[in-house]
Amino acid sequence: MWVNGPIIVGAGPSGLSVAACLTEQNVPYIILERANCIASLWQNKTYNRLKLHLPKKFCELPLFPFPDNYPEYPTKNQFIEYLELYANHFNIKPLFNETVKSAKFDEGLRLWRVKTLEVEYISQWLVGAAGENAEFVIPEFDGLEGFKGGVSHVCEYKDGELYRGKRVLVVGCGNSGMEISLDLCEHGAYPLMVVRDSVHVLPREIFGKSTFEIGVLLMRCLPVQLVDKFILFLTFLVLGRTDKLGLKRPIKGPFELKKTQGKTPVLDVGTLKRIRNGEIKIVPSIKRFCEKSVELVDGRVVPVDTVVFATGYRTNILDWLQEPMQNAHEENLGLYVVGYTRRGLSGCTSDAIRVSQDICKEWRKQALNPAHVLEKHAQCTAEKE
């Protein structure tokens, strides 16, 4: 099937952002989405208490602000509602239940061939927008297959009611691990949180102002290392020393790590208080799993009823893209990616604007030469016949 515009893979915030920017420029496109809804990660694989970790102005998609009545930190359901309003406003209609199996550049036709289970789509431009969180990750551990308790990933977690009265091992101390540990506590469970690496824990707000916003404002005029020192000083005033709780800080500061490695600091929403009073136990790395317990690297054997892995996600673009990304970029093959810069929703927005502008420029060049487009279309049709 010939597409007179880009093929966008993924109908999450990244794909929707590109589609909206293209719509604004009257450039046609199609969106292929493997799920049966937009933003399937947000709709199907997030816990109930989730809120945006940053103020809403840092999470807006292009060309469409959040409703005025939304709070500073919208809830999961409010964000989903916002995305649905966004799709309706720009008349974005993805093709659902379309799983991309392969995407390959045809050197002869100089076109992209994108195959789903039943259809092959052909276009001059391909936009990978399935995001960095397409597939969940569970690390390998000795003995895990023999563990008799429950095993799940945080993408399956909704709330702590099912875990009431149980000893729950939460593997991972990022924002998800911290928040579900707090949620488990509030539902009468007994969480133990595995902290394998150093981690920056910051207050979500400092003296009523977003910590992230303070850092962003300061980095406009100060070196990131100096900003980190200031933020960590304020964090000490608000949270005290976290290393005494088993949460050692990395050598590099939180904003430097975010800028250079894409590592996001944890923004505390009440978990540290529960750690301090002993309701959430911090434990070191896992050595091995036993039938009804876990052996830690410090030699302790801790009984647990169930395990929840808050160990992150990975992209799946390399599962279906049959072309080296660097080569495609260097050779100007019409391949673009949006939302892979580890800069969250603000990164999606800036990527989408940049990519859509580039595609619009190229598409308008083609529009000035319709014979070329018709020739491409004819070649594809003839080949199919």
Content-based structural category = alpha/beta
Q: Looking at the structure, what is the overall shape? A: globular
Poorly predicted ranges: none
Helical amount: 25-40%
Number of helices: 12
Order of strands, widest sheet: 8-19-9-10-15
Provide the residue-averaged pLDDT: 93
Cα distance spanning the termini: 12 Å
Instruction: Report the strand count.
Output: 21
- Beta-strand percent range: 15-25%
Q: Could you tell me the radius of gyration in angstroms?
A: 23 Å
**Main beta-sheet annotation:** 5 strands, parallel
Report on the structure:
34% of the residues lie in helices and 19% in strands. The chain has 385 residues and is an alpha/beta fold. Helix 1 (13-24) packs parallel to helix 11 and helix 5 (211-218) runs antiparallel to helix 6 (224-239). It starts with 6 loop residues before the first strand and ends with a helix.
Produce a short descriptive summary.
The protein has 12 helices and 21 strands. The protein is α/β, with parallel strands linked by helices.
Keywords, separated by commas or semicolons:
385 residues, alpha/beta, 5-stranded parallel beta sheet, 4-stranded parallel beta sheet, 12 helices, 34% helix
Write the layout of secondary structure elements.
Elements: E1 7-9, H1 13-24, E2 30-32, H2 40-44, H3 76-89, E3 102-106, E4 111-115, E5 120-123, E6 126-128, E7 135-136, E8 150-153, E9 167-171, H4 175-186, E10 190-194, E11 201-203, E12 205-206, E13 209-210, H5 211-218, H6 224-239, H7 254-261, E14 266-268, H8 271-276, E15 281-283, E16 286-289, E17 293-296, E18 301-303, E19 306-309, E20 313-314, H9 317-320, H10 325-330, E21 335-337, H11 344-367, H12 370-384
Parallel strand pairs: 1-2, 1-6, 6-21, 8-19, 9-10, 9-19, 10-15, 11-14
Antiparallel strand pairs: 3-4, 4-5, 7-20, 12-13, 16-17, 17-18
